[in-house]
User: What shape does this take?
Amino acid sequence: MRGMYIHIPFCHQICHYCDFNKVFFENQPVDEYIEAIGQELVIMKRDGFSFEAVETVFIGGGTPTSLSEQQLERLLEIIHEHINVASLREFSTEANPDELTYGKLMVLKNGGVKRLSIGVQSFDEGLLKKIGRTHNADDPVRVIQDARKVGFDNISIDLIYALPGQTKEQWQDTLTKATDLDLQHYSGYSLIIEPKTVFYNLKNKGKLKLPGEDSETEMFDMLINHMQAHGRERYEVSNFAIPGSESVHNLLYWENETYAGIGAGAHGYVKGKRYSNIGPIKRYIETVGKGDRPVHSSHVVTETEAMEEEMFLGLRKTSGISTTVFEQKFGKPIVDIYGEALQTLEERALIEQVGDRIKLTYTGLFNGNEVFQEFLK
Assistant: This one.
C-alpha cells in the first residue's frame, strides 16, 4: 500500500451537509478509540500487511482537531510506532479553524505533520451559520497566521459553492479572501445533498432553497478562472495548487493506487480488495480488542471494475490517463476495451487525446458525470 488514511470520527458540531461517519464528541470513548487505532495497525501487520512502502498519511474525519493536545500527541505517537514518518512524501491532517489552537499546531508540527487541510467552506458569516459551521470568517486568518509562525508552509483550504441562498457575489468575495491568504493549495466543491443529513431532510420538506444548475455552473467557472488568475493551476476537477504543491495523498486515489483505511468506517484498497471498516465506534473498539480486523465489508475488484475505476478516476486529473500506463497495468490497449466510448466522447468534444494522454476538454469538465458514465455501461 502506498497511502494510509486514518479516520477520527468525532465532532463538536455536525455540519448540515456532512454524511461521513461521525459522532458528537461528548461522552465518547475517545482515548480508547485512539488506542484501538494502534491495535488495528498491529493486527494488519500480524496478518501480513506491510507499511514499508507507505508514502503518505492522511488524518481525516470527522474532525481530527476535536482531539485535545494530549490525545493528538498520543495518536501521533502510535503512527510513529508503525510508520517511518521521516520518509513520508506527505503527512497531512484535516482541521477546523476554531479548534486549531497554537498548542495543537505545535503538537502536530512536532509530531511530523507537514500539511494542513483546513475546512473553511466560506468567508460569509451568514452562510457559515446556515451550513452549521462553528467558526467565524476571521478564524481561518488567525489560524493560518499561527500555522506559519509554527513553521507550516504547506496549507490548503476547502471551499464549498452552490450553498443555500448563496449569490455569485458572495462566492466571488469568498474566492478573493481565499487567494488573499496566498496558500499553496485550494479545493472547491459544489454542495451535494447526501442522504441522512440535515440538508437532505430540509430539501425533502421543501425548506432548502438552492442556487439553480446554471448558477452552480457559473460558480464553478468563476472558481477555475479565479484560481488560474492567481497562479493556482487546476490539477484535478476540484483542486488547485501552485505547481509542485499538489496533494500527493489525494493523487493516490485518482491514480487508483493502493491505500489502507484505518479507523471506524474507514475505506481502504489493498491486495486487490476494496473494504470498509465497521462504523459504530464501540463495535469497532470491541472487534480490534478481540484481535480481529474490523472489516465490515470487502469486495474483490474484478479486472473490468479496475479498468472502469482507472478511467473515471484518472479522467478527473487534468493530466488525464496515459494509454501506455493503462496497457502496462492491464495488458491490453485502451482502444480494445473502450474504443467505441472514446470515439463517441471525442466526437462530442468532451475528451481529447494529446500524445499519449486522454483528457477531459473544458466542455467535458462541466459534463464529467456524462463522460464517466460512458465507462460504466
Notes: The longest strand covers residues 115-121. The radius of gyration is 21 Å. The CA atoms of residues 6 and 262 lie 5 Å apart. The chain has a mean pLDDT of 94.
